[in-house]
Prior knowledge:
This protein has eight helices and 14 strands. With about 325 residues, the chain is an alpha+beta fold. It folds into two domains: about 1-170, Ribosomal Protein S5, domain 2; about 175-315, GHMP kinase, C-terminal domain (Alpha-Beta Plaits, 2-Layer Sandwich), CATH 3.30.70. The strands form three sheets. Strands 1, 4, 5, 6, 7, 8, 9 and 14 form an eight-stranded mixed β-sheet that branches. A four-stranded antiparallel β-sheet has the order 11-12-10-13. The chain has a two-stranded antiparallel sheet with strand order 2-3. α5 (about 205-220) runs antiparallel to α6. The protein is globular. The mean pLDDT is about 95. Bound molecules: (3R)-3-hydroxy-3-methyl-5-(phosphonooxy)pentanoic acid. (3R)-3-hydroxy-3-methyl-5-(phosphonooxy)pentanoic acid binds near residues 104, 138, 139, 140 and 190.
Amino acid sequence: MVQATAIACSNIAFIKYWGNRDATLRLPLNNSISMNLDSATTTTTVAFDPALDDDVVVIGDQVAQGRHRARVVAHLERVRALARIATRARVHSRNNFPMGAGIASSASAFAALSLAATRAAGLELSERELSMLARQGSGSACRSIPGGFVEWYAGSTSAESYAVQLAPPSFWDLRDVIAVVSTTEKSVGSTDGHAAALSSHFFAERLAALPARLARVRHALAARDLPALGIASEEDAIELHLIAMTSRPPIFYWSPGTVRVIQAVQCWRAEGLAVYFTLDAGPNVHLLCHARDADTVVARVREIPEVLQVIVNAPGGAARLVDEHLF
Length: 327
Ligand code: PMV
C-alpha cells in the first residue's frame, strides 16, 4: 500500500468560470483567469488498499456521506480508469478554511485529490494532464494545479481544456483579503449554478463581453496594474451575481454583510485606498490590494460588524506532494 499526500491552494478568479458547454466533462463556455491563494489550502492523503471493500472518504474529522462522498468516489473512478486498477482507496482530506462558504473549497480539494490519488496509483501525470483530470472533479480545480497567476483555456474538447501559468507567484506581491461574512454551506452549489446560468438572458451578453475583458485582465497582470485588474474583476463578479439572480429559478448568494463590505470598499477607494472587490459563488467578499496596504485593509474590514473572520492571501504556488501524511 503506497500513500501519497498533496497540498493545493484554492484560487480566486478575476474572470470567472460560470456556465458549461458540457456539464459532465466540465467544459466551460469561457476562459477564466485566477490567482492561487496561499492561505486557503487543502491537504489530502490517498492510499489504494487491497484490504478495503469500499472507498473510505474522511473530510475534516468526519466520514463523508452522500453527495460529498459520491463526488470524491467518482473522481477516484477516473483515476482507477487511468491506472487500470480496481483497488478501493482511503482518502483523508483537511481544509484550513471553512467549506462551502465562497472560498472555493472544491478547487483546492480536487486539485489535491488529483495529485495525491494519481501518485498513490503509481501514475506520474504532466501538469496539463493533472489539470484536465482536476477539471472533471470541479472546474475551477484545474486552475489550482499550476502556481501563481493562471488561465484556464476553455477549449472545445476535454484535451483542449486545461490551465496554464501566466506568471509565477513571485511576479506580483498582490493580496487577496477575504472578508468572511458567513461560514454556513451555501444552499445552491456551483454545479447547479452553472446549469442555471444559461437560463439568464444576461448570460449571452456577458459571454460576448468576455474576450475584451479577458484581454484587459491579461494586460493588467502583465503590467501589474491593480486599478485595471480591480475594475475588470469587479465588473465580472457583479455580472456573475447578476446572472445568478436572474437565472430561473433565481439564486441569491449575497448576505447583508456582502453588501456592507462592497459599499465600504467603494468608500475606502473614494478616500484614496487602492482596494477592489470580487466574489465567488457565495457571500464572502475578496478584497484585492497591494501587499503594502494589506494591514490597513485588514484593520478596516475587521471594524465591519458582519465580518466574522479575515483571511489574508498572497499568490500561492502549484499543487505539490508533501511527506507528512494524514494517516
Ligand atoms: O469549480 P466550480 O464548479 O465550483 O465553479 C466555481 C465557479 C466560481 O467560483 C464562481 C468562479 C470561478 O471561476 O472560480
